[in-house]
Amino acid sequence: MTSERVFVFVDEEELFSVMKDADCLYCRIPVTASKQHLKKRHLRFAIYYKDAGIGRFSIPCYCSDGGHGRSHWHCPMCSKILHRTQNYKIHITNHGVEMTDKSSVSDGNKLRFVSKFSPLPAELQPTTVLLESLQTHSEDKTPGSKAACQKCGILFTTTSNLRRHERLQHGQDQQPILCVDAKNAIYVTPKYLHGPRVPIHIRKSFTLQILLCELEECWDFMKAQAQSGNPGKECRHLVRTNHAQHYVPPPPLSVRSLEEMRDKHLLSASEKHECQEMNSRACVQGVDCVYPVFWGEHDLPERCVFFSVYTDLEDKWCQFGRTRVSFDSKSGSWKCLCKHKRSRCVHKCLCMWWLFQERPELLQDALDVHPERALNDDLC
After folding, report:
1. What is the pLDDT of residues 51-79, one digit of tens each?
2. Which residue from 112, 81, 149, 126 is spatially nearest to 11, judged by alpha carbons?
3. Mean per-residue pLDDT for 309-326?
4. Under a CB-based contact definition with an 8 Å cutoff, are residues 379 and 307 in contact?
5. What is the reported pLDDT for 308?
6. How many C-beta neighbours within 10 Å does residue 56 have?
7. What residues does the C2H2-type domain cover (predicted)?
8. How do beta strands 199-205 and 54-58 pair?
9. C-alpha 202 chain-centroid distance
């Protein structure tokens, strides 16, 4: 009975014509060899390859030769029976065939079918541009071909993976995130996707087992997720740490620049002493006293300059030991989250110290007016 059966075919129509709705020759139990049966039982698991440049495919068999109706493979080149698909692939490869996929076999057979006809008239011949585009399309579909991301250069084997990468890593909704304190795993990222991009502080560390966000709504979200059996679920701000930039220390504050500010009467003696003391505490803790945030470097509005300032305490306005100070470079107004919002505080003085030292041009408008007024104005 084995000699009456054929286990290799050129296309599906050849298989259907051999069966012709008779009993299936490849099943131990008698069953009508309908197209639905052949597709579901045999073609679904077919192995495609090329032999001497001709596309072919083999189908699994369930006859009694395999024992108890177990699926097996009959080698078309020899009489050997193999029970595992991988062993069958290795076996027929040793016979000199080339493993491929279904599309390659069907496309190759279609090309051979067209070649039997006479050449097309000159006016119907494909142009060079069309041939090049078809060749490029064929190369893109070749197994193992890789598509590169235009922004970071990472290679992907499929276009869908490339699109997913571009959406998640380079999407329009992606917001910048900066590490301002590597020791305590503190980051800053925009609170919302619109407006001046006011930053908030977040903490994320797998070593310290910390997942914290300053926003109360994010706390409620993560708490609800934990109660629902999904602990460790991160808010939208914490998720951004997956593409956070490496910590880059800012220029340290210099005592010399502080002396210059005192000589120009930009700071009082008591304010100078408070700034020095706060900076010393930050140095002892091994953190930056002032960390500037320039969103303009990340293609965002650059009118406002934000600072993450060390506070040496934890409160509602500085939950992680740092607070936010804002400076409007056009109006010269300042804003701080501390209890002294409408008065001159040490946090504003520290930020003014850093700007005076590193970016004095941004303070030009603020220095044109009285420094007391410049530091007392609120940022709208």
Report:
1. 877 888 899 888 888 766 678 888 888 87
2. 112
3. 93
4. no
5. 96
6. 23
7. 147-175
8. unpaired
9. 20
Domain ranges of the chain: 2-107, 145-174, 178-243, 255-376
- Pull the structure tokens for residue 42: 């045999």
Closest CA to 55 of 119, 88, 11: 11
Please state the separation of Cα 140 from the chain's center in Å: 22
Burial class (CB in 10 A: 0-12, 13-18, 19+), 130: exposed
134 token code pair: 């078809």
Q: Which residues, in sequence order, are CB contacts of 300 under 8 Å at separation 6+?
A: 176, 190, 197
User: pTM of the full predicted structure?
Assistant: 0.54
E strand or H helix at 292, and its extent?
strand 290-293
Tokens linked to 79? 């009489």
Q: What pLDDT sits at residue 118?
A: 43
Cβ pair 63, 47 in contact under 8 A: no
Give, in order, the Cα–Cα distances in Å from 91 to each of 9, 35, 65, 84: 18, 29, 18, 11
DSSP characters over 79-94: S-EESSHHHHHHHHHH
Q: Please tell me the least confidently modeled range out of 158-167, 234-243, 298-307.
A: 158-167
Gap between the Cα atoms of 73 and 67, Å rounded: 12
Q: At 364, list the tokens.
A: 């030009």
Q: Tell which residue, 84, 95, 2, 100, has the closest CA to residue 50.
A: 100
How many angstroms from the chain centroid is the CA of residue 135? 31
User: For residue 104, what pLDDT is reported?
Assistant: 64
Across 26-40, 60-74, 301-315, least confident range: 60-74
